[in-house]
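#structure-requests
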Amino acid sequence: MKRGRVYLFLALANLFWAGNYVFGEMVTREISPISLTFFRWAFAFLPLLALAWLIERPNWREALREWRMHLLQSVLGLTGYTLLLYAALGLTGAVNAAVISAINPATIALAAAIFLHERLNRVQAAGLVVAFVGVTVVLTGGDLGLLIEQGFGVGDLLVIGSVLAWTVYSLISRRLVTPPITATAVQSVFAVVTMLPVIAVVGVSLPSSGGGALGLAYIVIFPSMAGYALWNIGASKVGPSRAGIFLNLLPVFTVVIALVFGATLELPALIGGALVIAGVYLTLHQRRAGRRGRDGVAGIAHTADDASDPLLIGDPIEPVAHERLE
């Protein structure tokens, strides 16, 4: 496959995940975050199972041997992360949510350093600081005094909660041997099953307008299925370390889509977003450089351990199979 087509696949994956923020905000005006989360996976799990079979040809019996890990991952990443994000979108907006969520690769790097004892060099540490400063600018609107006086908004706290949920999900994913699309498919089945008791109590509703129905269809088809497939195809061709750089496109695409739909971009969000992207780039770029030195060549196909690297594979949104991708 030509390198240009591979890069297009990686860019499209991030474009589709960016749409999840914008359309998620639109759909949650008509249905609850619980309904949106349930229908997202209820409509997506069968196509995801088919995609896994077509692309990865998995050994389903081996995948099911890890069912306890898949159940935990489903609760953290597919249900918990998604519920928190959709609940936040109606309160803080797609642009702010996307910029705050862009910190996810940096939080995963920090958590890996703390809990998995992975080494961070000075440039990576500086990148983490820059990224966190960027998020602080977004959260405070550039006014620390206002934050001290009023505290964090509920929507901002929910986004931070979703980031933490995906961080834990990503660290745990390193223990899985199930291929990424197959893992997502199995976890989507668990997401539907575990949400059934909640649905039985609170009920569900479908969008009441044509626009809401189209938004739900978009979320099922593009972020949930096409995004995962395109990302994993691309990452398998150029290596997860090079593919990880494309994650910086996610907040950029989200802002562009939101502006097209009439959103406004405030200066603190613009400045904070630029700082977050710069900080995350420094963190991931140094990791790339380290792998280049270790392998002797940049972008080669790595081992199974690299394939599940939580910094570089996921939906963070909504994430990627083992990272957010939302």
